[in-house]
Specification:
Elements lengths: L1 E2 L2 E12 L7 E11 L4 E12 L2 E11 L4 E12 L6 E11 L4 E12 L2 E11 L4 E12 L8 H5 L4 H7 L3 E11 L5 E11 L2 E11 L4 E12 L2 E11 L4 E5 L5 E2 L2
Antiparallel strand pairs: 1-2, 2-3, 3-4, 4-5, 5-6, 6-7, 7-8, 8-9, 9-10, 10-11, 11-12, 12-13, 13-14, 14-15, 15-16, 15-17
């Protein structure tokens, strides 16, 4: 149906989006709305889209012809199909630039990789850099043995039962995190805090080696001892062995 610059269609709708310079994107949904005046076409109802290295599921999918970008909303899931480390991102909404192969996901972001669940406010994916930048109140839960998070667990990750199970894992919190989609390694910065079996360590920066399952904290490092904090040059936290190791520990106690 077409009327006054608006087109509507219902049923099993399939098509292809052709960005100006990027790879074509196949897309299907159940309802289509085209607004000629603003140059936007929107598909809704269990939308699935596929482009180079990325599969998108969302409640709605809008292609803005003028901005040459895609807006996704209503419980979005982006699966990175070419990532060497299997990676899935869930969020409330986001934008995708098909030309630069980048995506920004926002609102209750949950990233799953083998052996880890990462939560944050915003995640920015770059295919050319093979990385995700997660910001906000970032919290990572690390499990030994690179246990693969099941799909049904990821979908319910924020319910009370799932969260209680995650509390038993090694926790790594920060304000800024770079996630490699190649190695699964993490680079963390800003108010870094590690919790494991009622032990705590804090620092300004740190890394997580996914292969070794090892967290290394450096730069302004402190290790908790009772109600006090002991300064150290470096702290190593093994996710696999569930151990803390402080290097060049200073006996001075600090109170926070």
């Amino acid at each position: 149906e077409y009327k006054e610059g608006m087109a509507y269609s219902y049923g099993d709708i399939r098509g292809t989006v052709f960005p100006r310079t990027g790879a074509p994107m196949s897309v299907r949904g159940k309802r289509l709305n085209y607004n000629e005046k603003i140059g936007q076409v929107t598909l809704a109802g269990d939308v699935h889209s596929r482009q180079k290295g990325m599969v998108i599921q969302a409640g709605s999918f809008t292609y803005d012809e003028r901005a040459d970008r895609i807006l996704i909303a209503n419980q979005t899931t982006v699966t990175l199909t070419k990532a060497k480390t299997p990676t899935e991102i869930r969020a409330l909404y986001g934008t995708v630039d098909p030309n630069s192969e980048t995506a920004t996901l926002e609102g209750q972001v949950v990233i799953t990789q083998p052996g880890k669940v990462i939560m944050g406010s915003t995640a920015v994916y770059s295919a050319s850099k093979n990385q995700l930048i997660v910001s906000g109140l970032v919290q990572a839960y690390l499990d030994a043995g690179r246990t693969l998070i099941k799909k049904e667990t990821a979908e319910k990750i924020r319910n009370r039962e799932a969260m209680e199970a995650l509390q038993e894992k090694t926790q790594l919190a920060c304000s800024y995190m770079v996630v490699s989609t190649v190695t699964g390694d993490l680079d963390v910065r800003g108010s870094v805090l590690v919790n494991q079996n009622k032990r705590q360590a804090r620092a300004s920066r740190g890394t997580y080696d996914d292969k070794k399952e090892l967290i290394t904290l450096y730069d302004d490092v402190y290790l908790a001892k009772g109600k006090d904090w002991l300064k150290a040059q470096k702290v190593l936290v093994s996710v696999k062995d569930q151990t803390f190791e402080a290097q060049n520990q200073v006996e001075t106690q600090f109170h926070f």
